[in-house]
Amino acid sequence: MDSLSRKIQNLGIHDIRNAARFAQNMIVQYEPYQVDIRRATNTDSWGPTPKHLAKVLRNRYQVPLYLMTEYTLKRLVDHVATRPKNLYEKARKDYVNYGSEWRVVLKCLAVLEFLLLNVADGDELNQVRSCLVTHKHLLSREVMGYRVGVSSDGKMEVHERGIRKKCEQVLQLLEDSQYLKRERQRHARNNLKIRQQGESSLYNANPVDSSGSSPAAEALDDDEGADDELPETVPQQQRQRRRSHIEEQRRQRREILRERIKNTEIERKRQLEQAKARDEPDLLDLIDFDDLDGVDDDDFGDFQGGDASATSSNPTASDILDLLDWTAAPAAPAASTDAPAAEKNAPKKHDAFADLFSHSKSLI
Questions:
Q1: pTM
Q2: Per the domain annotation, does 169 fall within a domain?
Q3: pLDDT (tens digit, 9 = 90+) per residue, 72-95?
Q4: pLDDT digits (tens, 9 = 90+) for 290-317
Q5: Half-sphere exposure of residue 284, counting CA atoms within 13 Å on the CB side?
Q6: 210-216: long-range contacts at Cβ-Cβ below 8 A with a sequence spacing of 24 or more?
Q7: Which residues, at least 6 apart from 199, have a Cβ–Cβ distance to it below 8 Å?
């Protein structure tokens, strides 16, 4: 419930319009191609996007192109008309699309121009042209004389000039076959350039090839002239076979380049890991053994409390005599009051160590 309440709070006017359009499509039960055309010609402030136009053109494999063209013209006329036919159209003009109907008119003209420039030569182009030529008066009279009554941004004259300019372009494509052919060729070249730039941006992600020619350049060289205009005498079936063969070659090249980019990325990661392993410091290298070479001794002599110079020098004669005197001096016996007098007056026993020490003194 909390998630649902947050979603409801974050709903905007665009979400509400999309929900209303979805409900309307479900109630009226529009055909799939009609739904795509309605999405490409809605009242949003953007579009029709390339994705919307591609979806519209994709329906040519399910329905004839003249039906798609007629429905686009019908939608155009419904929004150009100033007098609504029924209560539903009046409510739509006055409340739902108020201030945004001119966007539907401009987008319908953009869809018609897109169909003229992007359908295949032959039957498809003839279907679109014949339908537009049949209803040419709608473009030359109704659309060219269209006046924007109200706009949400207040720029009614600017929008009127944009609509007339787009309508003039569509009419010129219908009236001048040479101009239509040149525009179709120029549009095909622009599409090829955009596609090649998109592919090159993918190929340029590979920074490895230092031999002088990048994979992107190779791909562009291989694609050079791939989609050039064939002579008019070439059958449509042969054109389609050549187009499918070129697309298969491009797909194979893309797979090869993706594999090369993947291998290069793996090699780069391996080199980074090796460089990182070489840069790790050794703990033994952190110890400076040169500082330890200057240490000649430790503090053990200081712990003994002696002077190192004094300990290492030879003892003198006076030091030896002092040591002998201290060793030869007998300890004084403690006087006992209980001992008999005879013991006190008795002579001392002969001490051999005392004679030895006395003899040593005489020698010194």
A1: 0.53
A2: yes
A3: 999 999 999 888 877 877 877 877
A4: 554 454 444 444 444 444 444 444 555 5
A5: 0
A6: 215/257, 215/260
A7: 216, 219, 250, 254
At residue 287, the 3 state secondary structure works out as coil
Sign, Cα dihedral of 241, 246, 247, 249: positive
Predicted pLDDT of residue 114: 96
Q: What is the pLDDT of residues 111-156, one digit of tens each?
A: 999 999 999 999 999 999 999 999 999 999 999 999 998 888 889 9
For residue 103, what is the domain's CATH number?
Answer: 1.25.40.90
Instruction: With beta carbons less than 8 A apart as the criterion, state whether 57 and 114 touch.
Output: yes
Residues 166 and 106: beta-carbon distance below 8 Å: yes
d(CA 36, CA 58): 10
267 found inside a domain: no
In contact, 105 and 163? CB cutoff 8 Å: yes
| Residue 340 pLDDT exceeds 90 | no
Tokens of 15: 């979400």
Paired tokens of 2: 């909390």
What burial letters (b/e) apply to 325-360, b meaning 16+ CB within 10 Å? eeeeeeeeeeeeeeeeeeeeeeeeeeeeeeeeeeee
Residue with tokens 């006046």: 147
Specify if 12 maps to a domain.
yes
Dist CA 185 CA 118 (whole Å): 10
What is the end-to-end Cα distance of the chain in Å, rounded?
115
pLDDT at 283 over 70: no
**Cα separation, 279 vs 213, whole angstroms:** 33
Residue 151's SS3 state is: coil
Report the percent of the chain where pLDDT is more than 70. Answer: 57
Q: How many separate domains does the chain show?
A: 1
Q: What is the enclosing helix (H) or strand (E) of 190?
A: helix 177-203
Structural domain containing residue 47 = 8-175
Q: Which of 64-73, 141-150, 226-235 has the lowest mean pLDDT?
A: 226-235
pLDDT-based confidence at 277, cuts 50/70/90? confident
CA distance 263 to 269: 10
Q: Is residue 116 in some structural domain?
A: yes
